[in-house]
Amino acid sequence: MQDKVLTLSRYLAAMSRVILWMAAAGLVMMTALIGWQVWGRFVLNDTPTWTETTSILLMGWFIFLGAAVGVREGNHLSFDVLLYILPDRVVTLFHYLSDIVVIAFATGMIFYGWQLASNAWSTTIPNLGITGATTFFSLITGGILMTLLSVERLLRRFVGLRTARFGDDPIEE
User: Fold this and answer.
1) Is 109:139 a contact under the CB 8 Å cutoff?
2) Which of 11, 18, 51, 133 could cross-link 33 (Cys pair, CB 3.0–4.6 Å)?
3) Cβ contacts of residue 14 below 8 Å, gap of 6+?
4) Residue 127, SS3?
5) pTM (2 decimals)?
6) Is 106 helix (H, G, I), strand (E, B) or coil?
7) Residue 167 above 60 pLDDT?
8) Contact, 140 vs 110, CB < 8 A?
């Protein structure tokens, strides 16, 4: 069973690297668009109206993609002071509980994001001419990725493999 989970972890590690690069590209693109907007406003005296809306959409993508990778890598801040004085079995239980809470939260992101997208499907983002549901696709995708990567953490722990926690050295597969 450990071998299968390790194989899954290798695939998810590769996927996480791609996702992180996508998030970084979104951040760079957003920065370039905001720069273009400032250039257009103050130098050309002709503000491109689509850059702000596109930048906000990109921001949602790089935030939720980066957050999903942060879940996998254990890079989110946590309040671990109590865990230093508790027995190892209780600490492990809290780690399981933490991942289950993340899964519940991510499932809510998927469910409510889907509802919001459904309600906004018939609207149009004026500057872009695309459906308003597009605004919520990053929320839904982020929730799916967070769920998947939290399940991986649960599986790793269940078969006796180490999971990353905030401040740990990276896990070598």
Assistant:
1) yes
2) 51
3) none
4) coil
5) 0.90
6) helix
7) no
8) yes
Q: In the chain, which ranges are continuous DSSP H helix?
A: 2-42, 50-73, 88-120, 134-158
Query: Which helix (DSSP H) or strand (DSSP E) does residue 124 occupy?
Result: strand 124-125
Task: Over range 71-79, report the average pLDDT.
Answer: 81
Q: What pLDDT score was predicted for residue 83?
A: 80
Q: 124 has which bridge partners? A: 131
**Residue whose token pair is 């549901």:** 133
Q: What tokens appear for 69 in the block?
A: 């990778």
Q: In angstroms, rounded to a whole number, what is the distance separating the alpha carbons of residues 64 and 78? A: 18
- Signed CA dihedral, 43, 49, 54, 60: sign only: positive
Q: How far is CA 154 from the centre of its chain?
A: 18
**Cα 78 from Cα 18, distance rounded (Å):** 25
Which pLDDT score is estimated for 168? 56
